[in-house]
Specification:
The chain is 25% helix and 40% strand. With 176 residues, the protein is α+β, with helices and mostly antiparallel strands. The chain has one domain: Gcn5-related N-acetyltransferase (GNAT) (Aminopeptidase), CATH 3.40.630.30. Strands 1-2-3-4-5-6-8-7 form an 8-stranded mixed β-sheet, with helices on both faces.
Length: 176
């Protein structure tokens, strides 16, 4: 299990946070779908999570506290291009840096797999997620009309380069 360390506010000293980031496994699927249903109007199925966590071309990361799984990221890569398919944090656990930690760890994992660029879609109305992605240097490169269902809404397509000269994703301290 990988422990995540987070800088203290107003200083550079590190403090332990009340969760850990680890690789997701198919047995996590029921917990992921429970969070998914609390977060999204058109949730993934348990089978979709299981398939993504089993496939060689994709991976999952979960944030886990003493109470269980509180967030996750699912991503895939092929031919040097990555895609963040799903990122969610259980609503009572938001605003604690968990989404940012999962995103940073996911970018590190994608970079280690040889990914040079990463894409994702985000609802045009999801200002909080867009802010998170902007802070992580994602840029809007397109729009997909009617991409989301329940409710129907456009998606912004965001892209980030993971070129070798960039070190931002290496700041996360994952203990292997």
């Amino acid at each position: 299990m990988a422990a995540l360390r987070k800088p203290r506010r107003g200083g550079s000293s590190l403090t332990d946070v009340p969760y850990q980031i680890r690789s997701g496994v198919p047995a996590d699927s029921p917990a992921l779908v429970a969070i998914e249903r609390r977060c999204f109007g058109d949730p993934w199925s348990e089978a979709s999570f299981r398939d993504a966590l089993r496939a060689s071309w994709s991976f999952g990361l979960v944030a886990e506290s003493a109470d269980g799984v509180i967030g996750y990221l699912i991503a895939r890569e092929a031919a040097g291009t990555g895609e963040i398919l799903n990122l969610a944090v259980d609503p009572p656990c938001r605003r604690q840096g968990i989404a940012q930690a999962l995103l940073e760890a996911g970018l590190v994992a994608l970079r280690r797999r040889g990914t040079e660029e990463v894409y994702l879609e985000v609802r045009v109305s999801n200002d909080a997620a867009q802010s998170l992605y902007r802070q992580a240097d994602f840029m809007a490169v397109g729009r997909r009309r009617g991409y989301y269902r329940n409710p129907v809404e456009d998606a912004l397509v965001l892209r980030r380069s993971l070129g070798r000269s960039e070190n931002a994703t290496d700041r996360v301290n994952l203990l292997d």
